[in-house]
């Protein structure tokens, strides 16, 4: 009997990636569509999306490719990058990521798919890891309070400038920067200072503050330690002199150097900033890396960014949480001094674990080795007649070779090593953890000298001054001493991961946050050496594959959004907002319209909108929100007329922050344009538009995108993020640029927004791969399924909870808001109670009380399959029945499973005196006992943690007590 013949062409067809990414299959979509009342995805989106904004044409993108094909294409791009030994320095260094950290943190979805720890009861693992990070930074800098990470060193220094202005005595004084500061840091500070009217002065402070500057009011001073040139000098006289003038002092310090050198705190600094990149985080062509800031105790409540603190749970057990959340900048809106509302959690965890694994002795050993290589290198150069400019240095040398600098750099490159060309006469050479003897010999050869490493090593003394050597202990807490073996470290990482809830456990239905699949194929290339080990200031010809990938991603994002030009430099959504508003500002100023400074923002907008507008030198005017959740058009018209001559920009989110496609968005944009203003469309909700509508076509002039939302870069527990800015042609000349990489932006640009030319370039392969895997049709279908999933949940929950805002036909966009306020009024059950009770059911809560207090905003995304959507709906329906028992009096208002949630395994031990059973507490609605997620702590006392602020590991003597 002849078998059925299947053509080879059919057998060779791979399962389309789209089917792996999108959760509901064809049959599931049909069931969901039937429940919502539509016959097809096209029919649903035709009803939901206003005709006035719909794109008439399909996305002009390359067709979808298989996972194997995309990996091969990325391998081809990676092979075009040339990874030489990097001795460029300038804040970016080669480092060895311990494999146990690489595999079990960076490559582990338990860590990279987690969300910001706003539900601390199910974030205890990463919160402990961040507390380790804060302790590491605080103790190495000698300052008592450190934040949970900032975006990079340059923006951290800019935040320090803003903090100095806010807290300093001379609030209108200038900000003084030592000339030996990293050039990209100076440039970022200038970008941030200009719109807010802060005068920045750069001067040589090696001999103290010059008299002509000391005569003026100085608000703050920034000193690099060691200097960008490598010089190690006693900065205490400058710090003391600045304090005498009433200025606050920030020290941008290298943490590895601080294992050997006196800390900024000991030298009298008020603030310390920097990067933790060289603590085991790959360079990644510039990022992502965890910046840091540490401050004196009196500044803790003004610290920008996030701060992890210690509190207690309902049983009095120690528990971690984000401290002082009410001082977070996006909550302060237009009163904010910073727009930071995120962090670099994944990278901070890696850096903190690097310190945990090596401990103080190991870190000091790495620093000594690095310094010793620099010392031997310098001795060989000096022996060969090359002038080493500074007598004291840690890891970086500046050498003088009159007229021969470019020749020496080229010769070193031919020998496989990149050096930094300072100018025609000077070369900078940086050693690091990865420096080898072969590289030292290659550098010597490039300068035409020879040396015997062993002989020079034996004959050469250290170059660090005795008066600056560190004598105090640091990293004394047991956590930095207990995990030396890989077995111990592996188990510690697993133990912390088990205390968390991430996307690898179940759905995280957060509205406005888009927690979707971060596919393994997309993630895999990030750790390839050709992408991970490239220095951001390496010669462009060595980064051919990277630059091709970057430009292709820029072009494809421009096509998706309908804009003309995209910059990938902003390394967070907040930074993309700022970049977009600075582009608008630059455009108006170029046209002679310097009076156009008013930014109209709906009252429902995310707080970073207002904060970014203030940082861009604009005046925020709030536009009312109508009862249906849309912009109050009459109030908007009135505000446009009132500020017609001063109107700079309207910032809107589309679909609206309330999860609705506003019908009259094109009319709104036209009214603003007619008045001479620009329209900023916040890209937070782009997951409802891709393939269906383009902001650049329905009236937007500029948008920032969230690659960590729509384009699959993982949230990492609260970072990394990428927030590219997309603009129409007339705004393109005012995009970010960079002083050290001319290809990174227009010559007429506003300056750098981030420290690195292409921001967090190391994770751009993720979004490039996502777009390449999906193709235009796949991206459109993903959007349609996201809209379907949100409407399916809304329809299932509507009989039990009111859906607050809907558009035509009762439809929502890609998220829906359910209103709990009537239930709270009737029963006393709060939005907090429901959020914590969802933990007992095995879920992360939706977004709480944003944009409306007392509500939950739910966004399921296209990645969740029907079984998970139904599991969530059934949990919410069961919780509604529990609320009914409270309302009827069957359960007391102060003793019920909702008020007691979440319930730990430990809570079941001993006497049980509640009005509900143990089974009702931990296995509600017939929940499977085998698949139970057990939270590590009960409900955390937020107020206690703020009253008793503890933001680092307790000292050793407290541990012993």
TrEMBL record:
Its EC number is 1.4.4.2. Keywords: Oxidoreductase, Pyridoxal phosphate. This is Glycine dehydrogenase (decarboxylating). Belongs to the GcvP family. GO terms for cellular component: cytosol; glycine cleavage complex. Its cofactor is pyridoxal 5'-phosphate. The glycine cleavage system is composed of four proteins: P, T, L and H. The modification N6-(pyridoxal phosphate)lysine is found at residue 709. The gene is gcvP. Residues 782-903 form the Glycine dehydrogenase C-terminal domain. It catalyses: N(6)-[(R)-lipoyl]-L-lysyl-[glycine-cleavage complex H protein] + glycine + H(+) = N(6)-[(R)-S(8)-aminomethyldihydrolipoyl]-L-lysyl-[glycine-cleavage complex H protein] + CO2. It comes from the Bacteria. The glycine cleavage system catalyzes the degradation of glycine. The P protein binds the alpha-amino group of glycine through its pyridoxal phosphate cofactor; CO(2) is released and the remaining methylamine moiety is then transferred to the lipoamide cofactor of the H protein. HAMAP family: GcvP. InterPro entries: GcvP, GDC-P_C, GDC-P_N, GDC_P, PyrdxlP-dep_Trfase, PyrdxlP-dep_Trfase_major, PyrdxlP-dep_Trfase_small. Residues 19-447, 454-736 form the Glycine cleavage system P-protein N-terminal domain. GO terms for biological process: glycine decarboxylation via glycine cleavage system. GO terms for molecular function: glycine binding; glycine dehydrogenase (decarboxylating) activity; pyridoxal phosphate binding.
